[in-house]
Amino acid sequence: MSEILLKVEGDGFRPNRYDLRSTEKILTSYRQIIDHLVPLTIGQKTLTDRLKSEIKYETSFKSGSLEVWLDFVLPAAGILAAAASQDGGQMISQQISRLLSVVIDFRRLYTDFLEKGKKPKIGINIQDQPQVLVNLENVNTGGGDINISPIILPAASTTRSAVDRLVGSVDGLVVEQLLVKYEDNETLITSEDQRIIGTQKEELPDFLEIIGRLDGIAFTAHRGSLVTGNGRFPITWEEDIRDKIKSLADQEGIAFRVRPIVDHRRFKDDPVAFHVINCWDPQTRLW
Predict the structure, then answer these.
(1) Do residues 47 and 150 both lie within one domain?
(2) Which residues contact 195 (CB under 8 A, 6 or more apart)?
(3) Residue 239 belongs to a domain with what CATH number?
(4) How far is 84 from 2, CA to CA, in rounded Å?
(5) What CA–CA distance (Å, rounded) separates 211 from 237?
(6) Domain termination site, one of 197, 227, 259
């Protein structure tokens, strides 16, 4: 399988001397991006435990600028081996490189609209032609502002945090630029791309009281989900109500006082999350 090149240039990457914090951040973010893109290239939604057990990465380094050459160690059998059986896995490397390139292009276009004060409408190219991955024209979608093939939306969504961290490491000094390349496909990230990770969250002033159930709670991170009759919504909370959250987790019919938060950089049609101010069991209050 041909290798994917990640090349990092800047003051922090001199011959045989690399800036430790930048190196750690870049390599971790890059590996997470690859982890998210591999399943999509072989028709799976997420990196399952089975697929994760098959993926082995090998890297080699070259001096000067930091150059990381990534190759896959293919198992003798399994999902990844079956996908790579015809071409030795070159299509996987090609698709990963191409997906990352299109995700960056898509996020740049998306940010163009946000900077003009408009939340763009995303159209899906139902024909899913490989050559029409990102297109500003109306391509069989009914009129999206940005029209993409179906694979791009999950690719952009699942890699969002890792791409934010990778782009955030390019400060123009310690890290002047990043290049990801496979054969003739190149993705160049510079400090100008910092704009695609800017904060676009808006806390609405009004409070809501809703009934639902806490699910998927991560107490350390103060994050979880609130399941209501209208769907599942991401939530956050402050430390002062941690005990209440803990005591009421996974119980039906719990009341929540929340402040809606709109994240304009979410690519899907459900950008609303909630910050929980208080929660209680309505039945207990009756007594």
Answers:
(1) yes
(2) 111, 115
(3) 2.40.50
(4) 12
(5) 16
(6) 197
Distance, CA of 108 to CA of 5 (rounded, Å): 22
The residue range of the domain holding 219 is 201-286
Q: Please tell me the pTM assigned to this model.
A: 0.70
Residues 100 and 22 in one domain: yes
Which tens digit of pLDDT belongs to each residue from 116-175? 888 787 777 655 444 444 444 444 444 577 877 778 888 888 898 899 999 999 999 999
Task: Indicate whether 65 and 166 sit together in one domain.
Answer: yes
pLDDT at residue number 27: 93
Q: How far apart are CA 60 and CA 272, in angstroms?
A: 43
Contact between 248 and 254 under an 8 Å Cβ cutoff? The reply is yes
Tokens of 157: 């969504």
Alpha helices in the chain (DSSP H): 20-41, 49-54, 79-83, 90-115, 152-158, 160-168, 242-248, 282-286
For position 100, what pLDDT does the model report? Answer: 93
107 with 150, same domain: the answer is yes
pLDDT above 70 for 32? yes
Number of domain units in the chain: 2
Among the candidates 130, 164, 197, a domain finishes at: 197
Query: pLDDT band at residue 213, thresholds of 50, 70 and 90?
Result: very high
